[in-house]
Amino acid sequence: MKNFQPKNKEIKAIRVLLHGPVGAGKSSFINSVNNIFQGRMTHEALASFKNCEKTFTSKYTTYKIRKEDTENFYPFVFTDIVGLEVKDGEVSVDDIKLALKGHVKDDYKFNPKSSLSDGDPDYISFPSINDRVHVLVCIYDANVLQIMPTILQNMKEIRKAASDLGIPQLAILTHIDAACGEIERDLRNVYKSKHLKKKMKDFESSVEIPLNCTLPVKNYSYEIEMDSDVDALILDALKLIIDFGDDYAAKLRIP
Ligand SMILES: Nc1nc2c(ncn2[C@@H]2O[C@H](COP(=O)(O)OP(=O)(O)OP(=O)(O)O)[C@@H](O)[C@H]2O)c(=O)[nH]1
Ligand SMILES: [Mg+2]
Fold first, then answer.
1. Which residues form a coiled coil (predicted)?
2. Domains along the chain with CATH numbers
3. Alpha-carbon gap, residue 229 to 17, rounded angstroms
């Protein structure tokens, strides 16, 4: 991953958009990736305290991964999007659709009352192929028994918009340590756990993302030291995400 370069020479960085319910582990995933590349614990994307009901992330912030001891960054970036909160109404589904096409400026603060529109200072009227999202990743907590129908509906709508644009999609199942005792005991049991397998199948039918595009991950959360078993699953997921995004970005041409 350290040597990755986008196939399309016009693309500066593969843009990964993470979306999913509040507390699913979007920020923690970005932190986990950053930890691996820095070789130590980091907290760039600030994960929230457990059981935080309101979403903690509210800005359209792009996170870059710095190359160790340099001023340069790796050619992939992550946008950690606001949790799909339902209490405040129609949230950001429309904004997320705009983000997919590259219309949303960095640091835009989501407004649950109204969606972004042309003319707003945070609206990019003519997005470049670098502003666009190249791969969409849905993040779910493996312990949530049933995703709320409203959230599921929002997520479906976002995925449909991505599909219409041809943007590839993956799902990441987090909190797998808390989902199964065998996995908590030893993360290497991840593909042996019948319980997790069933969970993944259930998710496949409810979110309609195929099993071979669904990746189990345990984010760094309570650890104070790096752990190679945690890294292995994060890197498996990251590799697939970047490959999918790179294939899509390779087909984009400057208009
Ligand atoms: N045990 C465990 N805890 C996790 C995992 N992933 C995230 N967490 C914890 O779950 C809580 C929520 O994680 P966040 O990364 O803040 O979730 P988020 O999706 O960014 O949430 P919002 O920004 O509020 O939408 C934090 O306390 C994390 O430490 C995981 O894989 N295993
Ligand atoms: Mg967050």
1. none
2. 14-250 (3.40.50.300)
3. 25
